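User: Show me a protein chain along with its predicted structure.
Assistant: Here is one chain, sequence first, then structure tokens.
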Amino acid sequence: MSWLQVRLSITPELATKWEDRLLEVGAVSVTFIDGADQPIYEPDLGTTPLWQHTHLLALFEQPATEQQVTALLALYGETVPTLAFEEIEDQDWERSWMDEFHPMQFGQRLWIVPSWHEAPDPSAVNILLDPGLAFGTGTHPTTSLCLQWLDGEPLTGQQILDFGCGSGILAIAGLLLGATQAVGTDIDSQALEASRDNAKRNQIADSAFELYLPEAMPTRHFDTVVANILAGPLVSLAPVISSYTRPGSRLALSGILAEQAAEVRAAYAELFELDPTVEQEGWVLISGTRKV
């Protein structure tokens, strides 16, 4: 089977209306994509922001034609946005998706290996982790920066906190790199489930990796604290994150755009001796040591 793909360039305020219309006239799926490489930063609670230049991609089963789709949309009695059509040949979508992901190396010792691949270096520290919906797999620069930082730290025998743990990738990396205990916390219970599943996949005992919602977090200190979230929460939660450290504790913060680095550094400079900022693809990692 082949598919007819229809692309509409639309403004954010009209996007939902035309999504509904495309589905009403027979589209089997409609996808929102960025039409101009515009980042969306931290949205207000309860909002779903769209890009100023939004594209809708709709898929129709053939034998649907360009003329049919255009005519059906015209029945709504409004000017139809500019449409671009493309015929998409059917393929093994699952295999195509899997082919996009390969083992990735971070630092000297650490690899992330999808379940369908052999580990390139069986003697390395290999984390078995498949791409998921939203929780972090190492492909984003912020996660990559944290993994590289962890690979360079002396973690043997340490206790680690993964603040905003998502998939648990950072805590799992720390444990496989030599830490004896890790704690993960996240506001999303699904993230805690993802962390728990990934820990089991990597043969990490429940006793070695504890998981908590924020309100249930125990009061304790850690040797290393990693927080890969967003700049705004990193600033507002600086007292909370710092409370989990003691003199000599190491701290790594990411999820920060380069232009946000100064504000985040300022929020931690009083309590931490900060290292030089590390940047990758416009994102940064800020690390440091808790002062005596």
